From TrEMBL:
Interacts with RAB1A and RAB10; in a GTP-dependent manner. Residues 143-388 form the Rab-GAP TBC domain. Gene3D superfamilies: putative rabgap domain of human tbc1 domain family member 14 like domains (1.10.8.270), Ypt/Rab-GAP domain of gyp1p, domain 3 (1.10.472.80). Signal peptide: none annotated. Pfam families: RabGAP-TBC. It comes from Echeneis naucrates (Live sharksucker). One of its GO terms (cellular component) is membrane. GO terms for molecular function: GTPase activator activity. This is TBC1 domain family member 13. PANTHER family: TBC1 DOMAIN FAMILY MEMBER 13, TBC1 DOMAIN FAMILY MEMBER GTPASE-ACTIVATING PROTEIN. The keyword Membrane applies. Acts as a GTPase-activating protein for RAB35. Together with RAB35 may be involved in regulation of insulin-induced glucose transporter SLC2A4/GLUT4 translocation to the plasma membrane in adipocytes. One of its GO terms (biological process) is intracellular protein transport.
Amino acid sequence: MFREKELIIANTIYTHPQAAVTQETTFSFSCRTETEIQAYEEAVHKSWSVYSTKLDLVKQQTREDAELQMVQHYVLIGWPNYAVKVPDKILLNYLPLDQTLWESSLKKQRDVYCQFLKELIIQPGITKADLGQSREDVTMEDHPLNPNPDSRWNTYFKDNEILLQIDKDVRRLYPDMAFFQRPTEYPCQLILDPQNDYETLRRRIEQTTLKAQTVNRNRSGVTNVSSPGKALNLYPSNEYEVLPNGSEAHWEVVERILFIYAKLNPGIAYVQGMNEIVGPIYYTFATDPNSQWKEHAEADTFFCFTNLMSENRDNFIKSLDDSQCGITYKMESVYSMLKDKDLELYLKLEEQNIKPQYFTFRWLTLLLSQEFLLPDVIRIWDTLFSDEGRFNFLILVCCAMLILIRENLLAGDFTVNMRFLQDYPISDVHTILTKAKELQDNS
């Protein structure tokens, strides 16, 4: 768990991303008015909402600690570019609290990710012909038609099934935004460099969909053979634009992150919805104003996503649904809290047989990423990640969302209320977070 001072700094930085300053300004309390100091204290109190009971501690430490004086300074005049996106990496346990260790830690992690690319994105059978290497992957014992479950080729074909699902999901990631369809400024040269034989996932998808065939037998016994790409309409012409060689879209980077995660975590592999979790993290890092951070958005996103999934992965494991750490328990927790906070509304939903799994499954599993616009999702996640209870606060947020539309729900019938819950009408996330904090304080 983070020390209190680091939490104050991290939370305040990302909650108040004012216009970046171009010059450092000397700051001290002696040059600030009492009104300015009070305004800062209120700002910290507001941003550090999950720890409001410790406001006196904040005030005391602010006056005694140089780093907290720096935070006050930036709250008043604006944050430098380098500071805006760093706290997410701290709160997701990617960066150590000791800033002197950042450079070595980042280099180590990024080198590890580079190794993952080399080991996991290369198709079995790809060799460098100019080096005269033999096709050691195709032998009498192991070949593409080998039915042995331990066969490397059998693993490769199973990986293709996962890759096709990932590909289908990431192509439609945040369709209301053009960002993920645009080319990244920093394509992966290890993969795209024409001097090597590393295969892009794009080419692997194309080869799989063009060479494989789908066999369908109708009720009359007639067999039809067709390309799965055509049969399933995997790639409608208006869904994405094919980029030239040497370029790749942001969704392709996300696809690579998810594929590597699936390979390294075979117990869970890939489950639909993970694309909605990794998307906001990648977007945050890939739009960092600091090019040095932006350049390594892929590797940084992978590790932050992996760390987040280590806390959230039980939601994606069906065998754990009914356990205390599973999604069913969490969905029921929303109604248990609602029963405690607003009995009338709870009884209304029970009377209409509106079960929590009808809407909270998506809310909780995807961390509300499909309920709000991406900037609002990031704002909600900032609060969740900085909360000491993290996903317990998510339960509070879901309960707050219900209470904020209680008048609509009390007046509506089943159909109307399901429409409200499936398409949440309030877009002001600050109102929702404030209500969640209020519920927390009254617990």
